Amino acid sequence: MSNDDDLLYELYALGVLEEPERSRVEELLRSGDRGAQEKLKRAMETNAMLLGATPLVDPPKSLRTRVLGSVGVVERNWGWVGLVGAMAAALGVVTIYLGTQLQERDGQLTAARADMQRTLRQAAETNAELTRARQVLSFLNAPETRMVTFGPRDPKPPKGRILLNANRGVLLIAGNLPPAPAGRIYQMWIIKKDRTPPQSGGLFQTDASGNAVHFQGGPVPLDATIAVTLEPEAGSTGPTTQPLFAAGL
Amino acid sequence: MWLLTFLFAAFDARSEDELIGRLKRRDPSAMADLYKRYGKLVYSVILRVVKEAGTAEDLAQETFLRIWNRAQFFEQDRGALGPWVLTVARNRAIDYVRSVEARNAQKSTTFEPELENPSSYADLERDILNSDRARVLRDAIRKLTPNQRVVIEMAYYEGLSQTEMADRMHQPLGTVKTWVRTALKILRNELEEVST
User: Which of A136, A244, B20, B86 has its CA 20 to 30 A from that of A14?
Assistant: First the structure.
C-alpha cells in the first residue's frame, strides 16, 4: 500500500471510500495488520475532530424535552406544584367540555378521564412530563379536537384513543402495548388520503405497564389514518412492518 | 499549570467513565447528562447535513435513542464516547438525505454507514474533541484552498464518494482525488506537528 493510500483511512472510516482502495484497506484490517488498525483509529479521531469543529447552533428547547421524554427520564423541578394546580384546573375544563359535548360517550370519557388523571399523576413527578402534559391539556381543551377509539372490540390488546386536531396535531393514548423488544421502538404514522407516503408521527416507548401517551404537534388532516408500527430503534423513514393498529375518524 | 491540566483531564476521563457506566445500567439521569454534553453538537452536525430544523430535531432524537439502546455494548474503560456519538449523528443525517434522494429518484439507497459499532471506539483518545489536536485541526481547515475545503465538506457532511464529488463539481475524477489527498495530507501534517 502506498503512502497516498494511507491518507484514505479517513474516507474509509466515513464510509465513502470506493473500490479498489476500499478492498485494499479491508483486506489489511481483516489480516490483523496492526499498522492498518492504528491508522484507522487515528483516522476515526481525525474524523471526530473535524465533525467536532462544526459551527454550533442552539437546538430548540423542545429537543431536550423530546430526548428525555422518549426514554422516560425523570427530572425534578420545584415549580411543579404550581403547574400541577394549573393543570388540575385545566383538567376540570376539559372534563366539563368533553362531558357536555360527548354525553353519548360517557363510558369512553370515564376511561379517558382516568387516562388523563394517570398521566397527570405521572406528570407531577417530572418536569419533562409536565411540559408534555400541558401540551396535551391545551390540545384537549381546543374545541376542534376530535376523538376516536380503537381496539375495544379486539380480543387482544392494544387499545386506546386517538385525538386529532387539524391545527395542533395528534394525541395517542394507548394501553396494553407490550414494551418494544430490544433494538425496536414504536413509531406513529400519519397516513393521508392523498396517497402520499406515510408521514412519521414520532417515536415512543411504553412504560412498564404497557401504557403510552404520545403527542405529535403540527397540522394534520382530520381524515388521516393514524397507525403504529414496530420499527428499528432509530426509527424508519417509512413503515417497515405491519401496523399494530390503525384508526381514523 | 500542567498539574491543573492533568487534573482536569483525569477528572474528565473519570466523569466519562461514570457517564458510560450509568448509560450501560440505563440510569435515566445519564440521558440528561449525555444530552448536556453532546446535545448542541449533535444537533449542529445533523442540521449542517439536512439543512432543515424540524428534520434535524427528529434525527437528533433518534441519535440519542440509538446511543441509549446500544450503550450496553460500549467498552466503559476504553471507549471514546464523543467520536461514537458524532458518528451515529452523522450517519443518521446522511442516511436520511440519501433515502429522500433515493425516494425522489425512485431508486434504492446505497449509503452504508461504517464503523458505527460501539466496540470500534475502543482505544481512541478519550477527550479528543477538547484536545489541543482538535484546536490545531480547526485552524488547519482554514489553510485549505476553497476546492480542498469543498471536497472535505462533501465527504464529511454529504457522505459523497470521490466519484460523486467529481460528478457534482463537473471535474475530472483525478483532479478531485488530488484535492482530497492534498487536503488530508495538510490536515495530517498539522496534527503530526502538534504531536511531536
Answer: B20
Q: Would you report the helix, strand and coil content of chain A in percent, each value rounded to 5?
A: 45, 20, 35
As given in the structure block, the three cell numbers for residue A144 are: 376542534
List CB contacts (< 8 A) between A64 and chain B.
35, 39
Nearby residues of A166 by Cβ (< 8 Å), 6 or more positions away = A144, A219, A220, A221, A222
> What are the pLDDT digits (tens) for A101-146?
655 556 666 666 666 666 666 655 555 556 666 666 677 767 677 7
Cβ contact A71–B163 (<8 Å): no
A71 with B62: Cβ contact below 8 A: no
Q: DSSP string covering A52-79, please? A: HTSPP-PPPHHHHHHHHHHTT-----TT
CB contact under 8 A, B60 and A18: no
Residue A203 in contact with partner chain B when CB distance is under 8 A: yes
Grid coordinates 434522494 are at which residue?
A: B101
Q: In this complex, do B65 and A197 lie within 8 Å of one another by their Cβ atoms?
A: no
Q: What is the pTM of this model?
A: 0.60
Q: What is the pLDDT of residue B101?
A: 77
Average pLDDT, rounded, for chain B: 82
Find, in chain A, the residue whose alpha carbon is nearest to that of B49: A54
List the single residue in B with minimal CA-CA distance to A41: B124
| ipTM here | 0.84
The answer to whether A51 and B48 are in contact (CB under 8 A) is no
Domain formed by A145-249, architecture? Sandwich (2.60)
CA distance A184 to A233: 4
**Total structural domains in chain B?**
2
Torsion of CA B165, B169, B170, B171, to 10 degrees: -70
Instruction: Give the range of the structural domain holding residue B29, as residue numbers without chain letter.
Output: 1-124
Q: What are the residue ranges of CATH 2.60.40.10 in chain A?
A: 145-249
* Same domain assignment for residues B66 and B156: no
Tell me how close the Cα of B4 comes to any Cα of chain A, in angstroms.
23
Give yes or no: residues B111 and B182 share one domain: no
